[in-house]
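Our platform keeps sequence and structure together, in a single record for each protein. Such a record has a labelled line for the sequence and another for the backbone structure tokens. The tokens are whole numbers drawn from a learned vocabulary of local backbone shapes. The remainder of this section carries one protein's record, kept here as part of the documentation:
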Amino acid sequence: MEEKHMLELCDEITHITETIKMPRKIRENLVKCVDLLKENGKNNTEKQNNVMLILEEINTVKTIPPMLRTEIWNLIGKVESNERANL
């Protein structure tokens, strides 16, 4: 994932956490995604994989609001498309 795409993804996740009401644990996991994307010392593939695991875990929660579920799916799609672009 290019640096530009990672920053865009961080901004989008931050916007979601600030504008959509959600359970505290899900918000914490999304903030963790941002921290992982900004982390130095790891390669981009490792960052993408870690973020993808967290997003997929969030997506399995049955009680998240439909609007948030849609946003999570959009984020997963962006991470996947960036992975394919790097192959």
Summary: The chain has one domain: 3-85. The CA atoms of residues 2 and 8 lie 10 Å apart.
